[in-house]
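For reproducibility, we list the full input for the zinc ion complex.
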Amino acid sequence: MADLQVHQFPCLSDNYGLLIHDPATGDTASIDTPDADTISAALAEKGWTLTHILNTHHHGDHTGGNMALKDATGCRIIGPHGGGIPGIDQAIGEGDTVTFGSFTAKIFETPGHTLDHIIYWFEGEQTAFVGDTVFALGCGRVFEGTFEQMWSSLAKVRALPPETVIYCAHEYTLANAKFAITVDPDNDALKARIKKIEALREAGKPTVPTTLETELATNPFLRPDDSGLQKAVGLAGATPAEVFAEVRRRKDNF
Ligand SMILES: [Zn+2]
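The corresponding predicted structure, in tokenized form, follows.
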């Protein structure tokens, strides 16, 4: 089987567009649709024809291009239950699988940022498309769900194999880094990563994708059971859900 090809490109002010392509079948999917024109240009540049849209959640910067792209290509739109996905053909949820070309994605529901949020895990390709659930050194703001729900959702991501490549939907990493060091000040891996992030952004390069292994070592939202982080936020011995909620609250006010 050929590899899953992934093309990532900037979209809108700080989103990433993501096209995935199966060279064996020619199938091409857009993971979310931040901007139809930018995605169409990326398709033309690669010489790929859009066959699918795989949506993660209903926000406009993830679904805004759905109808224009569907009208232009007749592509099939797959996304979460909940009624918020424009032009949806197939609604999916926890435990479902999606076949894309020769590949299969397993679906996890990750409510918190929105109630309808789902992520796509291509187990055989060790790749996950996590939308606004996890960011490099961050996680999505909890708009619709509870902190407890968001923690349960992050725990699902945390349970994936550490080598999993994580594609998130925004370039927020530098701002996330400035916060992360305030709640995890003694983390040497985090300090080293921040230097790399600063160099990448100064060179105008993306900091994503990331890997789960890197996030487990440095992302404060995935480390609420770390004793150093617990101490730094004044919650030694608290439950991971409690520590997560405190870290998220601090970030909201940062
Ligand atoms: Zn969102």
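The longest strand covers residues 5-11. The chain has nine helices and 14 strands. Both points were considered when choosing residues for closer inspection.
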